[in-house]
User: What shape does this take?
Amino acid sequence: MANPPYKWISQRVRVREDRRFLTGQGRYVGDIRLAGMLEVAVLASPYAHALIKSIDVEDAIKQPGVVLAITGADLARDTDPIPQFLDLPRVRWYSLATDRVRFAGEGVAAVVATSRAAAEDALDFIKVEYEPLPALADPEAAMAPGAPVLHPDHGSNIAWQGAWTWGDVDGDFRRADRVVKTRLRWSRHSGVPLETFGTVAAWNSRLELLDVWASHQAPALSAQISTVLRFPSNRIRIHADLDVGGSYGAKRGQKQIALTTYLAMRTRRPLRYLEDRLENMAAGDGHGPDRVFDAELALSRTGECLSLRLHTVDDVGAYVGRGPLQIAKCITAIVGPYRIGSVRYSGLAVMTNKTNQNPYRGFGQSPHNFVLERLMDMAATELGLDRVEIRRRNLIPPEAFPYLIPSGSRYDSGDYPAVLDKALALAAYPNLLRFQAEARSQGRCIGIGIAACIEPSGANTAFFALMNPKHKTSLVPEGARVGVDSRGKITVAIGFASTGQSHETMVSQVIAEVMDIAPEEVAVIRADSLAGIPSVPPTGSRMSLMLSGAVLGAAQKILAKMKRIAAHNLGVDPETVEYAGGVFRRKDGSGAGLAFAEVALIAHTRKHQMPPDMEGGLSELYVMEVPGGGHLPDVAGRMQSYPAYTFSVHIPVVEVNPRTGEVRFLDYFAAHDCGTPIHPDIVEGMVYGGIAQGIGAALFEKFVYAEDGQFLSSTFMDYLLPSANEIPPIKMVEHVTPGPHHPFGAKGTAEGGYLTAPAAVASAVEDALSPLGVRVTELPMTPALLLALIGNGRRR
Amino acid sequence: MGKERLVTIRVNGQPVEAQVEPRRSLLDFLREDAGLTGTHTGCEHGICGTCTVLVDGEAVRSCLMLAVQANGRDVFTVEGLARGEKLHPLQESFWKHHALQCGYCTPGMLIAAYDLLKRNPSPTEAQVRDALAGNICRCTGYVQIVEGVLEAAANLREKAETPHGEPSV
Assistant: This one.
């Protein structure tokens, strides 16, 4: 990377959050201690689908330590349903099932007791009579005529369906020399944070408000709780001075928070509900997309991509949280990094007897990229072109930016061929090909994967309106308040909890850069939801753009005010004053200066030295809005969505053992361009971590349901998480195309590793087994799947 | 529910006494009775390594051990690594390499790495990966963790000093 023109931006300053985590002083929701705190346990349904004929909690209430036991009937009486993100008035979702259970593990009753153990003991005394119903674990079966219906009032299992056409798709397909067509399966998996979901809630009778600590990453949480409890949002205080033990998009916890806050209001006692691992896996509503794709790509004989037709069926689970909206996110970057002239995209969100789908890293962009890259590999094979060459021929060229894609987004900037070349150089690609040829001649199954990927960043959720016209989100703000005290010391308040992306460090770097001080001199606090800082938590790779923009905006407001005070005292025009090295002075260098701390003291205590029309104190809020945002989609479903586009190319090298189906990495190369990295260590860490989750998705991770809807992968012995032995050393190279929407040229980068790796690893494994006639159309590529594919290939 | 028992466990050199149910795990004892919340709850079935501590110098999953089994023994947790403000070399090198993100697996990872370096002061990269394979991290992809452990090993060798850590028994 070129030497940046910044003192603190792009520097590897110590990550300030790390110290507390390294010394065991992280403060997670399970670490919150309140005097007299009670605990909650939930009784889970053993059936995937059943009517609740009767339920009796009387004996449970009599057990030692039990304070309260409730059922879904309490919630149906006292609360409103949990808000869903599609327009489904007849799908009523409560934290506990009311008249029917819709997945194995769904809660039917909750007990509050003096300890979790006492609460769990009491669950054994709850009597439930069920009438089992046929269950659905397959989305296509759930759409079939005569299938059992989960929500009879809604009338079918289809939660949403829609279609968009951008450009002359039929014409382009008619004109095509070749069409490749495939059916692909993206299996249910997710971020699976090591910390499960937890909530602490307490009625604060002193202040007459509800205090909430939750391990969440959920936008608009106050509004949701307010709706469910029918309680004013300004009397719900959500604390952000909390560390969340991983989220990756998955920690929304709508029903868990609704239940815990309800119980706290009902008992007026502090209490907590911490999921155990089984609850988290089976019933935590944290599963990611679960898709069947039918995809077609129209090509010229020279490999030019003309048009894309894509249909998806998404298994969203029993109720509709935020998960199904992931179908529409990819419209933001529907053509990936390629010049594809027209697109038809259609889909269905189908309800089945599974726990709810929720967002996972990239909001559906990873399965979409898997589809695009599988199509590119297929096209290369069909046309007899090299897999790198076909991509190169279709990449959007650097001179084409800003580049308008058919679905309405304008990609901001990039140099995709340069990044591709850097990846190939890093991998010493020609040598790799020679190595592969030699190894193949010795009978080894060596595969080289290639995948390119667009990561939209900055989180403009205007696309929500494409799936729910009532969801008119044209603003996704992020605020920061910068204060300078009378001693000239700077504190920045931000409005969301830590989920591991080291935002406190980023804030300190931005302030250090603008205020010309050392980052460690900046205090950063996390203000609660009543502190008046508009905030949407870290979603959609948004914070490097949005939070740093907010901090910068507030700091510049402060500096402008301080310049005016300095100019007033220096007796000059504010336009002639500049700030550098802790001193305000005339731009021409003449005359005395005023120190930063002196100006701060004036602003706080010396009205007589301030411009007469000026407000006292130094405290400024700035609310950053998404660049290019502010609009809803047009009638054709086109919109300018995410503002900044990061690009990656991955080249994994694998060896597959054709007798065992085991995949072993020999190398992993990644090149990426996320604009100016604000902190290289933080950027690299997120890319590495994303790749590891992508490798998990490609090879290991799957939430498995039996045909009767029973959940089979509820432990870490059944749901496999990659360890340091499965994840190879990753070699990475950066390219910097400064983002035009950010003063330092930053873009987002938290998702790209996970968006690219599944496609890249699929490409590598298919390449390794191509001599055996294997085509990869499904993830994860478990040993069992690969052995079956090898067997099929040999039979062909 | 069984009758409560009195247990005394030395945690980072300090005796902690509590009346516990026989079913109380060592993990819950550390978090609830000893008030040391640095050791975290992950899977509760011994796979993820988040709750790793040393018992009489050996790495164990504190979710799988009962407090009554640890009665009279020495337990070492992440809170014992630093001496006041002075961080252990592992903590220093993890910090330098940003070998963590959300921080949740970090205490268990540090104890597993500490356990490795006690047994093998000069591990190869492959040995580090193998030793940490029982500790899952969902954030980092392990790259910076491995770098951190290798650098801590080198620093410890160079200084040729006994790292502060477990109190001598």
Observations:
- The helical segments of chain B are 26-33, 89-96, 106-119, 125-131, 143-159.
